[in-house]
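Q: Convert this sequence to structure tokens.
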Amino acid sequence: MLLQDLNRVRQIGVIAARHGFGEWLERAGVWRLLGRREKVEVSPESQRASTARRFRMLLNDLGPTFVKLGQILSTRADLLPGEFIEELASLQDHVDPFPLEDVYAQIHESLGRDAKELFKQIDPEPLAAASIAQVHRAVTLEGEEVVVKVQRPGIAEQIDSDLVVLRSLARLLEAVVEETGIYTPTGIIDEFDRAIHEELDFVHEASNIRAFLENHRNRPYMKIPRVYAGLSSRTVLTMEFIRGVKISQAELSPEDKREVAGHILDASFRQLFEDGLFHGDPHPGNILVLEGNRLALLDFGVVGRLSRAMQETLVMLVLAVALKDSDSVARILYRVGVPDARANLVGFRNDIEGLLGRHLPTTLGEVDARSLMRDLLDLAVKYRIRIPKEYALLSRASVSTEGMMRTLYPDLNILEVAMPYAKELLADRYDPTQLQGGLMRTLLRFQSLAADLPTQLSQILLDLESGKFSVTVRADQFDKLNENLRSAAIVMFMGLCACGFIVGAFISFAQTPVMYQGVPVLGLLGIAMSAALFGATFTWYLFGKRFGKVRVSRWLGKKRRP
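A:
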């Protein structure tokens, strides 16, 4: 690790200790790495705060990379408990804008031409400034109004440097944290690494915008900005400027609010079940209200993608929740997830049954989707089932969408509005208006079984054909028997060796002995070796067997860690 990295570790350690995480640093050996112990008093605010709030305050004080880490983690309810997700969702970038000269320099370096040769005008005051980039209004040479998103100079290098430090700290934490959840600390950093480098690449965001523009082309109520390919690159993104008001600031009549809420619901449904591409961060700041109650979407750095199979699974999951079918909910989540080990499916189902009983006491229209989704994902984490990140991102997007709809039109009956969509989705399977709940539940379970059975049978047949099919029987009695047989074999081997030395000693006595000052050397050597072997065998039997078992257990534990 470089000297500047060690200085960064020291800075992180001091701030972490100030927020009450000093004990973890001590256990992880951070102070030993730095060569000294920093004495830092815990701030009074941190002493009163919960662990989740202290973690959010810590990331906020550590700077842009760590704020972005918290923002990305806030979209991953599959990685952290709900309390942490809610705290991290409130993290905001508080950074000073960089000067206009740096904007010009970045445009020149990225696009290969001077900014004044590409734009007629660039507004010196940014529309927004964040840790990754800032946005300026501009006018092209053709007179078109655009917005230019320019990456902050040096941010990629700073993030890469901080990632080196984060990985080192994650490895230290893994050595001392007994229970790290489904993902290890290094696993979480790897997820952050992939996500942040996608966000740093504006070519990726431009591709997302073009895909949304194509998907919403025939939806007149939705406006997607156009990308100017000739004025865009990996660190500069130029888009069409859209005049509108943020949905949280729009002054709308009750009728207008109902219409806007309907547009949001329709767009969300189409994105999920037709396009397979949905906006991952639809908060009020990223949605504008235009003339005629049309909507515009902004900021496409975070999007989610659903395959056809994932869309089908999502439909089945929603139906299972609506029918309070805990068995189907458990099996669907277990199937779409990746269990870290064989999960207790019975316990998982029982916990889901209790959860649905709490959240669905009356009608589905009164459901608190935020709490329901958070608790479902928390249960998956508890039973060490890795839910795909797309579902976790969808959970956050759905909660944001539901919050906006309830704010716009609190009396909107979501079930009534959503029913035409449900009928459309289920038209190819069965008519939900003609089936009772019990029959629907039976068909739901049969469909789940029918979907799983061919894949499972095919896997078994392929394993049989390739000779990879094996059956492993484990039992405590067999393990003990195996251990005792190994111990007996070792004792017998060492005993035979000792007996061999004794016999050799007597033979040496019977032959012409090798004498040294009247003492038979070979005979005494054989007796000494046999005594040493007997002593070693006895000592191993009393002590080495137990310690060896501990060492083997620890070794196996390290080998099995994900």
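The two ends are 25 Å apart (CA to CA).
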